[in-house]
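hey can u check if this looks right to u? its 398 residues, i copy pasted from the old doc so theres a chance i mangled smth
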Amino acid sequence: MWTDTGPAADMPQLFERGGDLVSFAGGLPDLELLPLKELAEQMARLTRIGGRIALQYSTPHVARTLVPAIGDLMTREGGRAVAEHLVPTAGSQMGLLALGLGLAEPGETVLCQAPAYPGAAAAFRTAGLRLAGLPEDADGIDPQALRATVARLRAEGRRVRMLYCNPTFQNPTGATLSVERRHQLLDAARAAEVLVVEDNPYGLLGFDGHTVQTLQGLDPQNVVYLGTFSKVFAPGLRCGWIAAPAPVAERLRRTTEVMALSPSAFAQAALAAFHNRGGWDALLDAYRERYRERCALLADALDEELGTDGPWRWRRPDGGFYLWLRHTGGADTRNLALAAADQGVSFVPGGHFGLDGEYGDALRLCFSNVPRKRIAEGAARLARALRDPSGGTERGAA
């Protein structure tokens, strides 16, 4: 249901491309790395031999042939994939809405790591839920503050249902929660009787191949895990999954069946065939190397263009897709986005990642899909826009 629990469900414009625009906006993977000839042959064979099944309706379960492919991905980060506990989705975005509709009642509260992925905030608000940000310290989500926040909200009469987080190469900051802090967070959530939702699109995209154990692997009975093939394979297949404790999985299965009737049997079969023939290693290694290179090029260019002692601050991530910049003097990045558009470059203003208008002094840059030869030019255009205070100020006053 659409609700007025506001702010309104506001998704940024991410995927505009074309012309001379250098887009640092949308989190698109680099599909130049996909073995398209091999995929075309596999899909043609699938259609020819099994098309009458793969192109038909299916049940709301992860196909038996796809379970090993999901298990392969999850075990790389210490997770657990049990077939009967897996629920298919059309990507994590569908999973987020299913969680909001299937596990909570309108008016209940979801705690969110902030800054937060705007798709999660939009999904939960669409389900009629209220959001509350979680305090952080230098090491990420603060477990002691989690306990205090839950106690305060419950004293106010609010029912706290879930805790949503993206603990590895987070969108938008690129930050990763340490293993020690993960244990502390899980202990605090259990003590507060709050279900943890772990959204993990980027965990296998560490630039050096290093992985951190998932929250689901540490506490499978109190964590609902959202997985997706969108970032480790391709988003166009719209295929993902939820791994949840058995009672939760059944509730979510009923919800997703109402939402989509059935998952795409063809997409599941195509992914299973790809994994069965060659596994994930080659593709994951190629993605990691490509994104490591792109991140370094962008960070180096920003160092050159904006300097390391100016008002803009950022950290180089160890994986994922994003750089998160903040202005020490409180710039309005919504207005600066307009100045950037005039320069032929785009980014996502930080306000999209706030729960109540926060982070207006920040911006997110995505490096994953920008052609390497255009990264330096894009950074130069961005720097011109960010250095020009009149661009944003005049537009804001117009």
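The CA atoms of residues 173 and 324 lie 5 Å apart.
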